[in-house]
Design brief:
Met_Sox_Rdtase_MsrA_dom, alpha+beta, 7 helices, L-methionine:thioredoxin-disulfide S-oxidoreductase activity, about 25% strand, 6-stranded mixed β-sheet, two-stranded antiparallel ribbon, peptide-methionine (S)-S-oxide reductase activity
Length: about 180
């Protein structure tokens, strides 16, 4: 069965790369969601005034990849305690959020967040939002699969964004908590 997943976790290029070649992901686009402005552009969203998040939206085959696994990958690729954006990207448009498309996705999103909160892994509160999905606007063509079109620039951005340092410190601990208390339930 095919379903839709929508995640925001800072610069959409970084989450796009995580999910782009995952078995079961059928179609993936980067774009904008969560705001009220119709047909936003990158310039309007990057101003921080449109209310949109930079996000990814993809179709996945539930029989090939479970939504729980998609959530685990999400949590492993963001800083869930950054209320002002993600890493070097600051602003409302870069906040982390899970946009659920079904009641089951909502339940699993809150469950996964709850597991991380109860683990007391982080000194700061988890600020990742869980919101109903409403509308998605595809970003401009030059943003789609940016990591393939501009591999050197993408790599420089990724390495100097602060993501690598954060992941080196936290990724294995986050994974351990999620594997033990979320994926096994």
């Amino acid at each position: 069965m095919r379903n839709i997943a929508v995640f925001a976790g800072g610069c959409f290029w970084c989450l796009e790369k995580v999910y782009s070649d995952l078995d079961g992901v059928v179609d993936l686009k980067v774009g904008y969601t969560g705001g009220k402005l119709k047909n936003p552009t990158y310039d309007k969203v990057s101003s921080g005034l449109s209310g949109h998040f930079e996000a990814i939206k993809f179709v996945f085959e539930q029989g090939i990849v479970d939504y729980k696994v998609l959530l685990k990958l999400f949590w492993l690729n963001i800083d869930p305690t950054d209320a002002d954006g993600q890493f070097c990207d600051v602003g409302n448009q870069y906040r982390s959020a899970i946009f659920y498309t079904t009641d089951r996705q909502k339940e699993l999103a809150f469950m996964s967040k709850g597991v991380l909160e109860e683990s007391n892994l982080f000194e700061k509160p988890i600020t990742t939002l869980i919101l109903p999905f409403e509308e998605f606007y595809e970003a401009e063509d030059y943003h789609q699969r940016y990591f393939e079109k501009n591999p050197k620039l993408y790599r420089q951005y990724y390495e100097f964004s602060g993501r690598v340092c954060f992941f080196n410190r936290w990724r294995s601990r986050i994974e351990e908590v999620l594997d033990k208390h979320f994926l096994k339930n």
